[in-house]
Write a structure and sequence with these properties.
This protein is mainly α. The chain has one domain. Helices cover about 80% and strands about 0% of the residues. It is built from 7 helices and no strands. Helix 1 packs antiparallel against helix 3. It is globular, with a radius of gyration of 14 Å. The two termini are about 20 Å apart.
């Protein structure tokens, strides 16, 4: 049984929204000191990366509409396999610079597909 590709987009969207809520009242300094926010944020990035990786297997044409998909999956792999080398500033940079556009694109795709 093939999964509905929207399920992977929903997972990515919900994880992105969760990350935004985790860091809403933080700056880089507060984030660097908040181990719970770091752990929660990294976990949700892992889910985003895995969801989009699975999407690329189920619906490669849809996945191709997500800019920088390969980098997103690579970031997930770094978080999981290279966790000891990940710095809070690196994650914060992704939160600030890349997450908003990813969330916007995922929302657009869900709208195109009929988000119901």
């Amino acid at each position: 049984m093939q999964h509905d590709p929207r399920a992977y987009l929903w997972d990515a969207r919900e994880s992105a929204l969760a990350i935004q809520s985790f860091v809403a009242d933080l700056d880089i300094n507060a984030y660097s000191l908040n181990l719970m926010a770091q752990a929660a944020t990294e976990r949700k990035f892992e889910i985003i990366g895995e969801a989009l990786n699975q999407l690329s297997k189920v619906d490669p044409l849809l996945a191709a509409k997500i800019p920088e998909l390969a980098q997103i999956v690579s970031f997930r792999n770094q978080l999981i396999h290279g966790y000891s080398k990940i710095k809070p500033s690196t994650v914060w940079s992704v939160v600030s610079s890349s997450l908003p556009s990813l969330l916007q694109r995922v929302n657009e795709l869900l709208e195109e597909l009929g988000d119901d």
